[in-house]
Hints:
By secondary structure, chain A is an alpha+beta fold. Chain A has helices spanning 17-28, 56-68, 97-109, 130-140; strands at 3-12, 34-39, 45-54, 72-77, 83-94, 113-117, 121-128, 145-150, 154-157.
Amino acid sequence: MTERFVIAILVENQPGILTRVASMFNRRGFNIDSLTVSETETHEYSRITISLTGDDGICRQIIKQLKKLYNVKEVKVMDRQKSVFRELALIKLKNAPETRQEILSAVDIFRSKIVDFSPSTLCVEITGETSKIEAFIALVEPLGILEMCRTGVVAIERGCHYLNSDTSL
Amino acid sequence: MILTGAEIVVETLIEQGCKTVFGYPGGQVINLYDALYTRSDRIQHILTAHEQGAAHAADGYARASGEVGVVIATSGPGATNLVTGIATAYLDSVPMVAITGNVPNSLIGKDSFQEVDITGVTLPITKHNFLVKSVDRLADTIREAFKIAKSGRPGPVLVDIPKDVQIASYPYQACPVVEKKMPKKAKGDKLSRAAQMIAEAQKPYIYFGGGAVSADISKEITELADKIDAPIGCTMMGLSAVPVSHPRYLGMEGMHGHYASSVSQDEADLIITIGARFSDRATGNVSKYARKAKIIHIDADGAELNKNVSVELGIECDVKDALQRLISLADHQEHPEWMARIAELKAEEQIQFEKVTAKDRITPYALIQETAKHTQADTPIVTDVGQHQMWVAQYYPFQNSRTFISSGGLGTMGFGLGAAIGAAKATGKRTVLFTGDGSFGMNLNELATVSAENIPVVIIIMNNHVLGMVRQWQTLFFQKHYSNTDLHERKTDFVKLADAFGIRGYRIQNLSELSDVIQKAFLENTPALIDCAIYEDEFVLPMLPPGGCIEDIITERSDQS
Lengths: 169, 561
């Protein structure tokens, strides 16, 4: 059964490591839906969060292939129930008098905010789970999306679970 | 002791037990070659004709000895010439360290002369690679490269060293040889489950691959087979790990595998797979592969479990330890009916073989058998890629592990001559290279190396004047459209060629000359080349067509009678 997975990867903070991870996906023919990479609490490591669609077998194979990469320290599938998922999108919309009110109420309902406003455009910042962002996009699409960018998903486990196995309270 | 980076590289190689390196000098490794020059009493460098030959030589060296093979090349074209050799080693899990020079750090990224991003190029074909940006990391990086190359499932590692790092000075202190990291030991409950599955099976079949060669488990495989009364088959990469003469041994299975081996694998109700990865050449159509069998898969690389074939029980582990424990856990079994069926299949195979093997001309079979009269149990037998490779895989009477040296996963034509040089250097033994006129034509420049180093290799060219394997496919699947596979117009005289390189050359054109000429070639322990004419439409049989299953197996030619 195909579903969406979010995999968190802790990697050594070294040049080229993102290429190594991305190259593995490319070579093995696994598609990435989104990928983010950033610093972590320790300077030594970076954290890559990859979201992808596939079945269980693909997910297991990806994890095993990732674990074989030399600079990869930890790999974990983020549990749907036990983790917090967030992404951020910036969406530039047409600012026309006939649609403005509709946009403003959508922004309000989705608890997003307007971060830029010009006579012909306005820009919405929205954060949340992927499903929320996609619902918002579907809602405003007919009103004319001029430009859009998304960060991709980041995820963290709730409670005393850590990706870095060296971490403890 | 303060040394230059170049000296540190060579000292670290020596420290890690490397006695022979293969390579080719150039602008960005000139310092490295100077360090080799002043240490030539402690480490030998073999100059090849081309970097690709050097990479294959390092690979052949590693396959024959089990030690890490080392190759050195300069930046740019030197480095890219290694690529095929590195990929060959990667696909067959061969421990290898490739050292390349690069332009100085200050020139990296500026498209400088002979600059190439070789760590980028080799990313998907190395276990790991390093660009050493500063001399303080140099020795430890090379040690780490050796460790990665030989640990777990072995593979090639590339270390790229900019020229300024080779020139810079830094303290060096010798370290012990790095220990390889072994895969974890198998969990007891998994082995108990395996023993349980063995107890329930009526038709067990033991199946090993290249992992059996690298884990050195020949003895364990035959012991397990004896205990549970099972036949033994293997992949091409597994060849030589179990002696061909062993009564339980059925030979290689797969696309050109032995009939009895392939059919019994299909009929088995339990397949115990050890150090093999179910490549498409071994399985044919995976959805129709081993439909009646449960599969136990024991491998050093967990990522191989359930990758190509789903298995009932996958065990990622140190395979030698796992097999030893499984042998003591498993109950003694007897399967007389199954073994009778195996005997029947072997008899069928013999009948088929007699039917397709001509007696009135030089057949590959006759050539291989005649050669085997002059070789020993420990003679490295190297091949190139194509029909001749399959014939050697099918017919050569291997006895000792690591004596079959061939490019399996990548199927690299042109692999053989370089690899034979490496195997001969590693073992100090006379080496035999079986090749075809197509494969040999790809890297015959290495005859210069064979000659210069007086490498005792007997090169046997199965010369059919065609690219036989592709031609066979064209005959079977492309209505005999022999597109670009006919080499008759090349008119290469391989005997004269040998002579030009100062190597003894012989020609065999008739069956009557076969035994005398081979004997002559083996008389002296110096390089020799035999150009042996074979029939251009000789087929490799049996054949499981690509993507086919056991019902599709071709055992004789239907296009001619």
